[in-house]
Design goal:
This protein is mainly α and 442 residues long. Helices cover 48% and strands 5% of the residues. Strand 1 and strand 2 form a beta hairpin. Helix 11 crosses helix 18. The termini are far apart. Bound molecules: carboxymethyl coenzyme *A (CMC).
Protein backbone atom coordinates (compact mmCIF):
# COMPACT_ATOMS: atom_id res chain seq x y z
CA UNK A 1 0.00 0.00 0.00
CA UNK A 2 1.15 3.52 -0.66
CA UNK A 3 2.13 6.16 1.84
CA UNK A 4 -1.08 8.14 1.90
CA UNK A 5 -0.80 11.77 3.05
CA UNK A 6 -2.17 10.82 6.46
CA UNK A 7 -0.85 7.61 7.93
CA UNK A 8 -3.06 4.64 8.57
CA UNK A 9 -5.98 5.46 10.81
CA UNK A 10 -5.04 3.07 13.58
CA UNK A 11 -1.58 4.66 13.90
CA UNK A 12 -2.67 8.29 13.88
CA UNK A 13 -2.11 10.20 17.13
CA UNK A 14 -4.47 13.05 17.88
CA UNK A 15 -2.81 16.38 17.29
CA UNK A 16 -4.88 18.35 14.82
CA UNK A 17 -6.44 21.57 15.92
CA UNK A 18 -7.87 24.72 14.42
CA UNK A 19 -6.75 28.05 15.84
CA UNK A 20 -8.50 31.39 15.43
CA UNK A 21 -5.44 33.58 14.74
CA UNK A 22 -7.27 36.73 15.90
CA UNK A 23 -8.35 35.47 19.33
CA UNK A 24 -5.98 32.54 19.89
CA UNK A 25 -9.00 30.32 20.58
CA UNK A 26 -8.17 26.71 19.80
CA UNK A 27 -10.44 23.83 18.79
CA UNK A 28 -9.08 20.28 19.05
CA UNK A 29 -10.23 18.25 16.05
CA UNK A 30 -10.84 14.58 16.85
CA UNK A 31 -9.79 11.96 14.33
CA UNK A 32 -12.21 9.42 12.89
CA UNK A 33 -10.18 6.30 12.28
CA UNK A 34 -10.89 3.41 9.96
CA UNK A 35 -9.23 0.04 9.42
CA UNK A 36 -7.05 1.09 6.45
CA UNK A 37 -6.11 4.29 4.68
CA UNK A 38 -6.20 7.89 5.85
CA UNK A 39 -8.20 8.88 8.91
CA UNK A 40 -10.66 11.78 8.76
CA UNK A 41 -10.54 14.99 10.79
CA UNK A 42 -13.92 15.56 12.42
CA UNK A 43 -14.83 19.19 11.59
CA UNK A 44 -18.44 18.91 12.78
CA UNK A 45 -17.94 21.40 15.65
CA UNK A 46 -16.12 24.08 13.61
CA UNK A 47 -19.25 26.10 12.82
CA UNK A 48 -20.58 25.90 16.38
CA UNK A 49 -17.32 27.14 17.88
CA UNK A 50 -15.99 29.56 15.25
CA UNK A 51 -19.04 30.46 13.16
CA UNK A 52 -17.24 29.48 9.95
CA UNK A 53 -17.75 26.60 7.54
CA UNK A 54 -15.22 24.27 5.95
CA UNK A 55 -15.07 24.67 2.17
CA UNK A 56 -14.31 21.74 -0.17
CA UNK A 57 -16.28 21.78 -3.42
CA UNK A 58 -16.13 18.41 -5.15
CA UNK A 59 -15.26 16.76 -1.80
CA UNK A 60 -11.59 16.47 -2.73
CA UNK A 61 -10.56 15.81 0.87
CA UNK A 62 -13.89 15.43 2.65
CA UNK A 63 -15.39 12.11 3.78
CA UNK A 64 -19.17 12.07 3.76
CA UNK A 65 -19.54 8.87 5.80
CA UNK A 66 -17.84 5.79 7.25
CA UNK A 67 -18.22 2.66 5.15
CA UNK A 68 -17.05 -0.95 5.39
CA UNK A 69 -17.87 -1.97 1.82
CA UNK A 70 -15.10 -0.94 -0.58
CA UNK A 71 -11.54 0.28 -0.14
CA UNK A 72 -9.50 2.15 -2.74
CA UNK A 73 -5.84 3.12 -2.54
CA UNK A 74 -5.64 5.50 -5.49
CA UNK A 75 -1.87 5.93 -5.39
CA UNK A 76 -1.20 2.20 -5.46
CA UNK A 77 -4.07 1.35 -7.83
CA UNK A 78 -5.74 -0.99 -5.32
CA UNK A 79 -9.46 -1.82 -5.16
CA UNK A 80 -10.90 -4.18 -2.52
CA UNK A 81 -14.52 -5.29 -2.05
CA UNK A 82 -15.03 -6.25 1.60
CA UNK A 83 -11.23 -6.75 1.75
CA UNK A 84 -10.94 -8.97 -1.31
CA UNK A 85 -8.82 -7.66 -4.25
CA UNK A 86 -11.00 -7.05 -7.29
CA UNK A 87 -8.55 -8.88 -9.56
CA UNK A 88 -8.96 -12.08 -7.50
CA UNK A 89 -12.73 -11.74 -7.64
CA UNK A 90 -12.71 -11.07 -11.40
CA UNK A 91 -10.55 -14.14 -11.92
CA UNK A 92 -12.25 -16.59 -9.56
CA UNK A 93 -15.72 -15.42 -8.58
CA UNK A 94 -19.02 -14.62 -10.29
CA UNK A 95 -21.05 -11.42 -10.33
CA UNK A 96 -23.80 -12.99 -8.22
CA UNK A 97 -21.31 -14.21 -5.61
CA UNK A 98 -19.68 -10.74 -5.58
CA UNK A 99 -23.13 -9.17 -5.17
CA UNK A 100 -23.70 -11.39 -2.12
CA UNK A 101 -20.28 -10.42 -0.74
CA UNK A 102 -20.85 -6.70 -1.23
CA UNK A 103 -24.32 -6.85 0.33
CA UNK A 104 -23.52 -9.15 3.25
CA UNK A 105 -19.84 -8.56 4.01
CA UNK A 106 -18.67 -12.17 3.67
CA UNK A 107 -18.32 -14.70 0.87
CA UNK A 108 -21.33 -17.05 0.91
CA UNK A 109 -21.35 -20.75 1.72
CA UNK A 110 -22.72 -22.99 -1.04
CA UNK A 111 -26.17 -23.01 0.61
CA UNK A 112 -26.17 -19.23 1.10
CA UNK A 113 -25.17 -18.65 -2.52
CA UNK A 114 -27.88 -21.00 -3.80
CA UNK A 115 -30.52 -19.31 -1.69
CA UNK A 116 -29.40 -15.85 -2.80
CA UNK A 117 -29.32 -16.84 -6.46
CA UNK A 118 -32.77 -18.45 -6.20
CA UNK A 119 -34.19 -15.29 -4.63
CA UNK A 120 -32.72 -13.07 -7.37
CA UNK A 121 -34.09 -15.40 -10.07
CA UNK A 122 -37.56 -15.32 -8.46
CA UNK A 123 -37.72 -11.54 -8.65
CA UNK A 124 -36.69 -10.98 -12.27
CA UNK A 125 -40.17 -10.24 -13.65
CA UNK A 126 -41.63 -6.75 -13.58
CA UNK A 127 -45.27 -5.90 -13.01
CA UNK A 128 -47.17 -6.08 -16.31
CA UNK A 129 -48.47 -2.53 -15.91
CA UNK A 130 -44.89 -1.29 -15.54
CA UNK A 131 -44.25 -2.59 -19.06
CA UNK A 132 -46.78 -0.13 -20.45
CA UNK A 133 -44.71 2.78 -19.08
CA UNK A 134 -42.38 2.24 -22.03
CA UNK A 135 -45.20 3.13 -24.43
CA UNK A 136 -45.03 6.67 -23.15
CA UNK A 137 -41.51 7.15 -24.49
CA UNK A 138 -40.61 8.27 -27.98
CA UNK A 139 -38.90 5.47 -29.93
CA UNK A 140 -35.50 7.22 -29.82
CA UNK A 141 -35.49 8.01 -26.09
CA UNK A 142 -32.08 7.35 -24.56
CA UNK A 143 -32.19 4.06 -22.58
CA UNK A 144 -30.74 5.87 -19.53
CA UNK A 145 -33.75 8.21 -19.57
CA UNK A 146 -36.08 5.21 -19.61
CA UNK A 147 -34.07 3.37 -16.96
CA UNK A 148 -34.11 6.37 -14.61
CA UNK A 149 -37.85 6.86 -15.02
CA UNK A 150 -38.93 3.22 -14.81
CA UNK A 151 -36.69 2.37 -11.84
CA UNK A 152 -38.11 5.45 -10.08
CA UNK A 153 -41.58 4.13 -10.91
CA UNK A 154 -40.89 0.92 -8.96
CA UNK A 155 -41.53 3.09 -5.90
CA UNK A 156 -45.20 3.13 -6.91
CA UNK A 157 -45.44 -0.69 -6.87
CA UNK A 158 -43.96 -2.08 -3.66
CA UNK A 159 -45.77 -0.64 -0.66
CA UNK A 160 -45.15 -3.80 1.35
CA UNK A 161 -41.46 -3.15 2.01
CA UNK A 162 -41.03 0.54 2.70
CA UNK A 163 -39.94 0.38 6.33
CA UNK A 164 -36.27 1.30 5.97
CA UNK A 165 -35.69 0.29 9.62
CA UNK A 166 -36.76 -3.32 9.02
CA UNK A 167 -33.85 -5.55 7.90
CA UNK A 168 -36.21 -7.94 6.08
CA UNK A 169 -37.80 -5.05 4.17
CA UNK A 170 -34.34 -3.84 3.21
CA UNK A 171 -33.35 -7.32 2.04
CA UNK A 172 -36.44 -7.77 -0.15
CA UNK A 173 -35.86 -4.32 -1.67
CA UNK A 174 -32.23 -5.30 -2.41
CA UNK A 175 -33.17 -8.56 -4.12
CA UNK A 176 -35.98 -6.97 -6.12
CA UNK A 177 -33.80 -4.11 -7.26
CA UNK A 178 -30.86 -6.30 -8.35
CA UNK A 179 -33.19 -8.80 -10.06
CA UNK A 180 -35.35 -6.29 -11.93
CA UNK A 181 -32.80 -3.78 -13.20
CA UNK A 182 -31.62 -6.05 -16.09
CA UNK A 183 -35.25 -6.67 -17.11
CA UNK A 184 -35.95 -2.93 -17.19
CA UNK A 185 -32.71 -2.15 -19.06
CA UNK A 186 -33.46 -4.88 -21.63
CA UNK A 187 -37.00 -3.52 -22.06
CA UNK A 188 -35.51 -0.06 -22.74
CA UNK A 189 -33.25 -1.64 -25.38
CA UNK A 190 -36.22 -3.41 -27.03
CA UNK A 191 -38.20 -0.17 -27.06
CA UNK A 192 -35.34 1.55 -28.86
CA UNK A 193 -35.28 -1.13 -31.56
CA UNK A 194 -39.04 -1.55 -31.73
CA UNK A 195 -38.78 -5.25 -30.92
CA UNK A 196 -41.10 -7.17 -28.59
CA UNK A 197 -40.22 -7.29 -24.91
CA UNK A 198 -38.74 -10.69 -23.92
CA UNK A 199 -39.66 -12.15 -20.53
CA UNK A 200 -36.78 -13.26 -18.29
CA UNK A 201 -35.75 -16.92 -18.40
CA UNK A 202 -35.02 -17.95 -14.85
CA UNK A 203 -33.06 -21.08 -15.76
CA UNK A 204 -30.35 -18.76 -17.11
CA UNK A 205 -27.68 -17.14 -14.97
CA UNK A 206 -27.80 -13.37 -14.36
CA UNK A 207 -25.74 -12.20 -17.34
CA UNK A 208 -27.01 -14.88 -19.78
CA UNK A 209 -30.55 -13.82 -18.90
CA UNK A 210 -29.73 -10.19 -19.63
CA UNK A 211 -28.21 -11.10 -23.02
CA UNK A 212 -31.27 -13.26 -23.74
CA UNK A 213 -33.72 -10.47 -22.87
CA UNK A 214 -31.78 -8.06 -25.09
CA UNK A 215 -31.03 -10.19 -28.13
CA UNK A 216 -33.65 -12.95 -28.34
CA UNK A 217 -36.80 -12.43 -30.41
CA UNK A 218 -40.00 -14.49 -30.14
CA UNK A 219 -39.73 -15.60 -33.79
CA UNK A 220 -36.67 -17.80 -33.43
CA UNK A 221 -34.54 -19.69 -30.89
CA UNK A 222 -31.64 -17.84 -29.29
CA UNK A 223 -28.60 -19.36 -27.63
CA UNK A 224 -26.50 -17.20 -25.36
CA UNK A 225 -22.80 -17.32 -26.28
CA UNK A 226 -21.03 -18.52 -23.08
CA UNK A 227 -17.98 -16.35 -23.84
CA UNK A 228 -20.22 -13.29 -24.09
CA UNK A 229 -21.97 -14.13 -20.80
CA UNK A 230 -18.64 -14.70 -19.03
CA UNK A 231 -17.18 -11.44 -20.41
CA UNK A 232 -20.22 -9.52 -19.18
CA UNK A 233 -19.98 -11.22 -15.78
CA UNK A 234 -16.36 -10.06 -15.38
CA UNK A 235 -17.24 -6.51 -16.48
CA UNK A 236 -20.08 -6.47 -13.95
CA UNK A 237 -17.77 -7.62 -11.14
CA UNK A 238 -15.42 -4.73 -11.97
CA UNK A 239 -18.26 -2.20 -11.94
CA UNK A 240 -20.13 -3.50 -8.89
CA UNK A 241 -18.99 -0.87 -6.38
CA UNK A 242 -16.55 2.02 -6.08
CA UNK A 243 -17.14 3.57 -2.63
CA UNK A 244 -18.37 7.18 -2.51
CA UNK A 245 -18.43 8.00 -6.24
CA UNK A 246 -20.92 10.62 -7.49
CA UNK A 247 -23.83 8.24 -8.11
CA UNK A 248 -23.39 6.31 -4.84
CA UNK A 249 -23.13 9.58 -2.92
CA UNK A 250 -26.33 10.67 -4.68
CA UNK A 251 -28.10 7.49 -3.57
CA UNK A 252 -26.92 8.12 -0.01
CA UNK A 253 -27.90 11.79 -0.07
CA UNK A 254 -31.37 11.07 -1.48
CA UNK A 255 -31.76 8.07 0.83
CA UNK A 256 -30.73 10.14 3.87
CA UNK A 257 -34.08 11.92 3.67
CA UNK A 258 -35.83 8.59 4.26
CA UNK A 259 -37.30 8.61 0.74
CA UNK A 260 -38.52 5.49 -1.03
CA UNK A 261 -35.40 3.39 -1.81
CA UNK A 262 -36.32 2.83 -5.48
CA UNK A 263 -36.49 6.62 -5.88
CA UNK A 264 -33.01 6.89 -4.29
CA UNK A 265 -31.66 4.36 -6.83
CA UNK A 266 -33.29 6.32 -9.68
CA UNK A 267 -31.41 9.41 -8.43
CA UNK A 268 -28.18 7.39 -8.57
CA UNK A 269 -28.90 6.27 -12.15
CA UNK A 270 -29.43 9.89 -13.17
CA UNK A 271 -26.09 10.88 -11.62
CA UNK A 272 -24.30 7.99 -13.31
CA UNK A 273 -25.41 9.16 -16.76
CA UNK A 274 -23.05 12.17 -16.88
CA UNK A 275 -19.98 11.89 -19.15
CA UNK A 276 -17.64 12.65 -16.24
CA UNK A 277 -18.97 9.48 -14.54
CA UNK A 278 -20.63 6.38 -16.06
CA UNK A 279 -21.51 8.15 -19.30
CA UNK A 280 -17.78 8.13 -20.13
CA UNK A 281 -17.99 4.61 -21.63
CA UNK A 282 -20.38 5.90 -24.30
CA UNK A 283 -18.28 9.06 -24.73
CA UNK A 284 -15.10 6.99 -25.32
CA UNK A 285 -16.62 5.15 -28.28
CA UNK A 286 -17.95 8.39 -29.73
CA UNK A 287 -14.48 9.93 -29.30
CA UNK A 288 -12.81 6.96 -31.03
CA UNK A 289 -15.27 7.27 -33.92
CA UNK A 290 -14.52 10.98 -34.19
CA UNK A 291 -10.73 10.42 -34.20
CA UNK A 292 -11.30 7.76 -36.83
CA UNK A 293 -7.71 6.86 -37.58
CA UNK A 294 -4.37 6.50 -35.78
CA UNK A 295 -2.92 9.27 -37.95
CA UNK A 296 -5.36 11.75 -36.34
CA UNK A 297 -4.26 10.96 -32.76
CA UNK A 298 -1.58 13.70 -32.44
CA UNK A 299 -4.00 16.41 -33.63
CA UNK A 300 -6.68 15.14 -31.24
CA UNK A 301 -4.27 15.12 -28.29
CA UNK A 302 -3.19 18.66 -29.15
CA UNK A 303 -6.84 19.67 -28.87
CA UNK A 304 -7.16 17.88 -25.51
CA UNK A 305 -4.13 19.75 -24.17
CA UNK A 306 -5.51 23.08 -25.32
CA UNK A 307 -7.70 24.04 -22.35
CA UNK A 308 -9.68 26.49 -24.47
CA UNK A 309 -11.02 23.62 -26.62
CA UNK A 310 -12.91 22.09 -23.69
CA UNK A 311 -12.09 18.62 -25.10
CA UNK A 312 -11.03 15.88 -22.69
CA UNK A 313 -9.52 12.51 -23.38
CA UNK A 314 -12.53 10.46 -22.34
CA UNK A 315 -11.77 7.32 -20.33
CA UNK A 316 -8.65 8.97 -18.87
CA UNK A 317 -8.16 10.43 -15.41
CA UNK A 318 -9.83 9.73 -12.10
CA UNK A 319 -10.46 11.64 -8.90
CA UNK A 320 -9.01 8.86 -6.75
CA UNK A 321 -6.64 6.84 -8.98
CA UNK A 322 -3.37 8.62 -9.59
CA UNK A 323 -2.05 5.40 -11.04
CA UNK A 324 -3.49 2.79 -13.41
CA UNK A 325 -7.14 2.09 -12.54
CA UNK A 326 -6.88 -1.62 -11.58
CA UNK A 327 -10.19 -2.24 -13.35
CA UNK A 328 -8.82 -0.78 -16.61
CA UNK A 329 -5.82 -3.11 -16.42
CA UNK A 330 -8.08 -6.17 -16.11
CA UNK A 331 -10.46 -5.00 -18.85
CA UNK A 332 -7.52 -4.27 -21.17
CA UNK A 333 -6.33 -7.88 -20.79
CA UNK A 334 -9.89 -9.19 -21.16
CA UNK A 335 -10.40 -7.18 -24.34
CA UNK A 336 -7.96 -9.17 -26.44
CA UNK A 337 -9.16 -12.51 -25.04
CA UNK A 338 -12.84 -11.78 -25.60
CA UNK A 339 -12.41 -10.29 -29.05
CA UNK A 340 -10.33 -13.32 -30.09
CA UNK A 341 -12.97 -15.77 -28.75
CA UNK A 342 -15.73 -13.89 -30.52
CA UNK A 343 -13.71 -13.82 -33.74
CA UNK A 344 -13.48 -10.01 -33.91
CA UNK A 345 -9.86 -9.60 -32.80
CA UNK A 346 -8.87 -7.15 -35.53
CA UNK A 347 -11.18 -4.44 -34.24
CA UNK A 348 -9.86 -1.12 -35.61
CA UNK A 349 -11.24 0.81 -32.60
CA UNK A 350 -9.27 -1.42 -30.22
CA UNK A 351 -6.14 -0.74 -32.27
CA UNK A 352 -6.91 2.98 -32.15
CA UNK A 353 -7.55 2.88 -28.38
CA UNK A 354 -4.25 1.06 -27.78
CA UNK A 355 -2.35 3.62 -29.87
CA UNK A 356 -4.10 6.52 -28.15
CA UNK A 357 -3.24 5.05 -24.74
CA UNK A 358 0.39 4.44 -25.75
CA UNK A 359 0.88 8.00 -26.99
CA UNK A 360 -0.96 9.61 -24.06
CA UNK A 361 0.99 7.65 -21.45
CA UNK A 362 4.27 9.02 -22.85
CA UNK A 363 2.99 12.60 -23.07
CA UNK A 364 4.21 15.10 -20.46
CA UNK A 365 0.68 16.59 -20.08
CA UNK A 366 -0.77 13.26 -18.89
CA UNK A 367 2.33 12.21 -16.91
CA UNK A 368 2.43 15.48 -14.94
CA UNK A 369 -1.26 15.24 -14.04
CA UNK A 370 -1.14 11.50 -13.31
CA UNK A 371 -3.83 10.78 -15.87
CA UNK A 372 -4.18 7.06 -16.63
CA UNK A 373 -6.86 5.03 -18.43
CA UNK A 374 -9.88 4.40 -16.22
CA UNK A 375 -12.51 1.62 -16.24
CA UNK A 376 -14.42 3.26 -19.07
CA UNK A 377 -11.54 3.43 -21.56
CA UNK A 378 -11.80 -0.21 -22.66
CA UNK A 379 -15.19 -1.44 -21.44
CA UNK A 380 -17.02 -0.01 -24.48
CA UNK A 381 -14.84 -2.03 -26.85
CA UNK A 382 -15.95 -5.24 -25.16
CA UNK A 383 -19.60 -4.13 -25.08
CA UNK A 384 -19.37 -3.34 -28.77
CA UNK A 385 -17.89 -6.78 -29.52
CA UNK A 386 -20.84 -8.32 -27.64
CA UNK A 387 -23.20 -6.51 -30.04
CA UNK A 388 -24.36 -4.00 -27.43
CA UNK A 389 -25.11 -0.60 -28.99
CA UNK A 390 -23.29 2.48 -27.70
CA UNK A 391 -26.30 4.04 -25.97
CA UNK A 392 -26.69 0.86 -23.86
CA UNK A 393 -23.14 1.08 -22.42
CA UNK A 394 -24.12 3.28 -19.47
CA UNK A 395 -27.22 1.16 -18.66
CA UNK A 396 -24.81 -1.83 -18.48
CA UNK A 397 -22.74 0.09 -15.93
CA UNK A 398 -25.95 0.94 -14.05
CA UNK A 399 -27.02 -2.71 -13.81
CA UNK A 400 -23.71 -3.69 -12.23
CA UNK A 401 -23.50 -0.62 -9.95
CA UNK A 402 -27.01 -1.27 -8.63
CA UNK A 403 -25.36 -3.78 -6.27
CA UNK A 404 -23.13 -1.06 -4.82
CA UNK A 405 -25.93 1.50 -4.59
CA UNK A 406 -28.19 -0.96 -2.76
CA UNK A 407 -25.39 -2.04 -0.40
CA UNK A 408 -24.60 1.60 0.49
CA UNK A 409 -28.26 2.41 1.00
CA UNK A 410 -28.56 -0.60 3.35
CA UNK A 411 -25.36 0.30 5.23
CA UNK A 412 -26.64 3.83 5.75
CA UNK A 413 -30.20 2.83 6.65
CA UNK A 414 -29.03 0.15 9.09
CA UNK A 415 -26.67 2.53 10.94
CA UNK A 416 -27.54 2.19 14.63
CA UNK A 417 -26.79 5.90 15.09
CA UNK A 418 -29.78 6.57 12.83
CA UNK A 419 -30.14 8.37 9.55
CA UNK A 420 -28.63 11.84 9.51
CA UNK A 421 -29.93 13.89 6.63
CA UNK A 422 -27.16 14.97 4.25
CA UNK A 423 -27.22 18.74 4.16
CA UNK A 424 -24.10 20.57 2.93
CA UNK A 425 -23.53 24.23 3.75
CA UNK A 426 -22.53 26.96 1.29
CA UNK A 427 -20.55 30.16 1.03
CA UNK A 428 -23.15 32.68 -0.13
CA UNK A 429 -22.01 34.95 -3.00
CA UNK A 430 -25.35 36.55 -3.98
CA UNK A 431 -26.81 40.01 -3.44
CA UNK A 432 -26.83 41.37 0.12
CA UNK A 433 -30.18 42.02 1.81
CA UNK A 434 -32.23 44.61 -0.10
CA UNK A 435 -35.82 45.83 -0.07
CA UNK A 436 -38.45 44.89 -2.63
CA UNK A 437 -39.21 47.60 -5.20
CA UNK A 438 -42.67 47.70 -6.76
CA UNK A 439 -42.77 47.24 -10.56
CA UNK A 440 -43.47 50.94 -11.12
CA UNK A 441 -40.31 51.94 -9.24
CA UNK A 442 -37.87 49.65 -11.17
N1 LIG B 1 -8.34 14.80 -20.41
C1 LIG B 1 -7.58 15.92 -20.35
N2 LIG B 1 -7.25 16.54 -19.22
C2 LIG B 1 -7.70 16.02 -18.08
C3 LIG B 1 -8.51 14.86 -18.06
C4 LIG B 1 -8.82 14.25 -19.28
N3 LIG B 1 -9.57 13.16 -19.32
N4 LIG B 1 -8.84 14.57 -16.78
C5 LIG B 1 -8.28 15.52 -16.02
N5 LIG B 1 -7.57 16.39 -16.81
C6 LIG B 1 -6.75 17.53 -16.36
C7 LIG B 1 -7.61 18.71 -15.93
O1 LIG B 1 -7.85 19.58 -17.01
C8 LIG B 1 -6.76 19.33 -14.85
O2 LIG B 1 -5.70 20.02 -15.48
P1 LIG B 1 -5.10 21.38 -14.81
O3 LIG B 1 -4.48 20.93 -13.53
O4 LIG B 1 -4.13 21.89 -15.80
O5 LIG B 1 -6.27 22.30 -14.60
C9 LIG B 1 -6.13 18.12 -14.15
O6 LIG B 1 -6.08 17.10 -15.17
C10 LIG B 1 -6.93 17.63 -12.95
O7 LIG B 1 -8.24 17.34 -13.41
P2 LIG B 1 -9.56 17.59 -12.59
O8 LIG B 1 -10.67 17.86 -13.54
O9 LIG B 1 -9.31 18.62 -11.51
O10 LIG B 1 -9.74 16.18 -11.89
P3 LIG B 1 -11.03 15.62 -11.21
O11 LIG B 1 -10.58 14.69 -10.17
O12 LIG B 1 -11.92 16.74 -10.78
O13 LIG B 1 -11.79 14.85 -12.39
C11 LIG B 1 -12.51 13.16 -13.88
C12 LIG B 1 -11.78 13.48 -12.56
C13 LIG B 1 -12.71 11.65 -13.99
C14 LIG B 1 -13.89 13.84 -13.88
C15 LIG B 1 -11.65 13.70 -15.06
O14 LIG B 1 -10.38 13.07 -15.07
C16 LIG B 1 -12.33 13.53 -16.42
O15 LIG B 1 -13.14 14.38 -16.81
N6 LIG B 1 -12.04 12.40 -17.15
C17 LIG B 1 -12.71 12.12 -18.40
C18 LIG B 1 -14.08 11.51 -18.13
C19 LIG B 1 -13.98 10.07 -17.66
O16 LIG B 1 -13.27 9.25 -18.23
N7 LIG B 1 -14.76 9.73 -16.60
C20 LIG B 1 -14.84 8.39 -16.06
C21 LIG B 1 -14.25 8.31 -14.68
S1 LIG B 1 -14.00 6.62 -14.13
C22 LIG B 1 -15.54 5.89 -14.05
C23 LIG B 1 -16.54 6.58 -13.18
O17 LIG B 1 -16.24 7.23 -12.19
O18 LIG B 1 -17.70 6.44 -13.51
Amino acid sequence: MSNSPATQASQVKPGYSLVNDATGEKLELPLVGGSMGPAGIDVGKVYDRFGIFTYDPGFTSTCSCKSAITYIDGDAGVLLYRGYPVDQLAEQSTFIEVAYLILNGELPTKAQLEAFEASIRRHTMINESLKSFFNGFHYDAHPMAMLTAVVGSLSAFYHDTTNNKDPRHREIFAHRMIAKVPTIAAAAYKKYFGQPFMYPQNHLDYCSNLLYMMFAVPAEPYHVHPVAAKALDVLFILHADHEQNASTSTVRLAGSTGCNPYAAIAAGIAALWGPAHGGANEAVLKMLSEIGDVKNVPAFLAKVKDKKSGVRLMGFGHRVYKNFDPRARIIREQCHKVLKHLGVDNDPQLELALKLEEIALKDEYFIERKLYPNVDFYSGIIYKALGIPVNMFTPMFAIARTVGWVAHWIEMSADPAGLKIGRPRQVYTGAPRRDYKPLTAR
